[in-house]
């Protein structure tokens, strides 16, 4: 909260009731439980299943898929194996833009109902190295989106397979599974999905092996897998750029511009501004919110939502280049950024080539764990990766092996 601009905070508070009333209809604001990072409480108010029911997006499936036998999995750090972990990776929006934004009622409801890490950061700028960090434990000194990059490093898919566990990276609008040509539709120059938002296309041991590359299918396959009990343990979901808040495709309806002009967001945060730019950005935000409103119920109402399943919603990085944004912290390779504030205004976010990734929401929807916890512990994508590794008893990749600096997200997985 300390870096939130006062006017953004006021907007966030004043929209709280409005957002809740509009989206839920019941007018009942759930008591917010704040748990300091230092002393996580073990007293759940209720569980995630009840909270989903409360929101009206859950009706238990009459049939549940058989649960995996995890006897051979030796979880670490006191965690349990996740039946399934679903990771939704959204794009380029920080807490300052998301909290209280009236274009994002569903996301704000999730933040109020479920686990929320209020001090969670991307690793760097641009997109791709954030995705790589979250899946291999380092950005490997990359700070660009060039799709020529090859990350010849062990990634979590390798470690999951070693334990006989499944993974898939579902990619909305990818032409076909494992497609790694250009970022465009194969037949023309339009593009609606971006390779750099699909991390498992960058590990050579995967993209060069047709069997493993088949684990990067179009998003439609997720729905089939959920209902046919074939969904793997680890699920990484890459929405296309019409639905991940990135924008910039001529194919997205009503989102024809990349919203990247400094100061623009400050005007557009209020939906009453009907300038063309603001309407486009509002539509982009709404499309992301509606994407989650469509897919999260699909998951929790499916027979695959069993046992210790969790859904994670996060953003790769905050809205770089925007006045509302303050990139304050990065990953363990961005030591400078831990101690000083950087802002777009003076370009001081770039010190010796290092960036932070900005403060972004981390939302945790857990089926069995306490449903609403807010933590102010300082975390980033490495803590999330480590939590998943620990749950499945995997070796720690890259920076996640740094036990002193990188802890698991204990608050959410008691
Ligand atoms: C709001 O929720 C609380 C806790 O579930 C409950 O005790 C209270 O009666 C509810 N209030 C209304 C107006 O529904
Ligand atoms: C799970 O597998 C172990 C052997 O790996 C077996 O001993 C145990 O009975 C199995 N549990 C169930 C519920 O099938
Ligand atoms: C992108 O980063 C890689 C390191 O992963 C570097 O070798 C390359 O020169 C960079 N490309 C651009 C265009 O900055
Ligand atoms: C490219 O192909 C896609 C899919 O068929 C289509 O939606 C899009 O309009 C095409 N773009 C152009 C410029 O023709
Ligand atoms: C609406 O947004 C535009 C930028 O798209 C800005 O120039 C204009 O001043 C804004 N109007 C208000 C009333 O904020
Ligand atoms: C960073 O910014 C916050 C909020 O503006 C301020 O409270 C804090 O003192 C700043 N930290 C440093 C090291 O300048
Ligand atoms: C959630 O809590 C309710 C009420 O205490 C209980 O009936 C239900 O079994 C719990 N569900 C899970 C998944 O723990």
From TrEMBL:
InterPro entries: Alkaline_phosphatase_core_sf, Phosphoesterase. This is Acid phosphatase. Keywords: Hydrolase, Signal. Gene3D superfamilies: Alkaline Phosphatase, subunit A. The lineage of its organism: Eukaryota, Rhodophyta, Bangiophyceae, Galdieriales, Galdieriaceae. It comes from Galdieria partita. GO terms for molecular function: hydrolase activity, acting on ester bonds. Residues 1-25 form the signal peptide. One of its GO terms (biological process) is phospholipid catabolic process.
């Amino acid at each position: 909260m300390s870096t939130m601009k006062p006017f953004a905070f006021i907007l966030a508070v004043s929209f709280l009731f409005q957002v809740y009333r509009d989206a839920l209809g019941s007018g009942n604001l759930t008591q917010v439980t704040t748990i300091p990072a230092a002393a996580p409480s073990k007293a759940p108010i209720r569980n995630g299943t009840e909270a989903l029911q409360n929101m009206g997006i859950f009706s238990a499936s009459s049939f549940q898929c058989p649960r995996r036998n995890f006897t051979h999995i030796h979880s670490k750090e006191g965690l349990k194996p996740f039946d399934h972990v679903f990771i939704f990776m959204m794009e380029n929006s920080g807490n300052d833009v998301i909290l209280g934004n009236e274009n994002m009622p569903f996301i704000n409801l999730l933040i109020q109902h479920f686990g929320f890490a209020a001090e969670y950061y991307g690793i760097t700028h641009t997109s791709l190295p954030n995705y790589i960090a979250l899946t291999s434990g380092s950005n490997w000194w990359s700070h660009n989106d060039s799709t020529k990059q090859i990350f010849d490093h062990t990634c979590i898919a390798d470690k999951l397979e070693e334990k006989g566990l499944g993974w898939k990276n579902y990619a909305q609008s990818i032409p076909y599974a494992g497609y790694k040509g250009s970022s465009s539709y194969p037949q023309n120059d339009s593009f609606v999905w971006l390779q750099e938002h699909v991390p498992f296309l960058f590990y050579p041991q995967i993209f060069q092996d047709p069997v493993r590359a088949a684990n990067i299918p179009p998003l439609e396959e997720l729905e089939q897998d959920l209902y046919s009990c074939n969904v793997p343990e680890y699920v990484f979901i890459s929405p296309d750029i019409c639905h991940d808040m990135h924008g910039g495709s001529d194919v997205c309806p009503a989102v024809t511009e990349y919203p990247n002009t400094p100061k623009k967001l400050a005007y557009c945060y209020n939906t009453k501004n009907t300038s063309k730019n603001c309407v486009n950005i509002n539509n982009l935000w709404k499309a992301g919110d509606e994407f989650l409103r469509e897919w999260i119920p699909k998951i929790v109402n499916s027979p695959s939502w069993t046992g210790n399943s969790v859904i994670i919603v996060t953003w790769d990085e905050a809205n770089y280049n925007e006045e509302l944004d303050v990139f304050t912290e990065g990953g363990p390779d961005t030591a400078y950024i831990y101690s000083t504030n950087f802002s777009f205004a003076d370009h001081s976010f770039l010190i010796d080539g290092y960036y932070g990734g900005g403060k972004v929401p981390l939302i945790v929807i857990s089926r069995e764990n306490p449903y609403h916890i807010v933590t102010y512990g300082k975390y980033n994508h490495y803590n999330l990766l480590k939590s998943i590794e620990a749950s499945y008893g995997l070796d720690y990749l890259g920076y996640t092996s740094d036990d002193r600096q990188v802890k698991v997200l204990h608050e959410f997985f008691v």
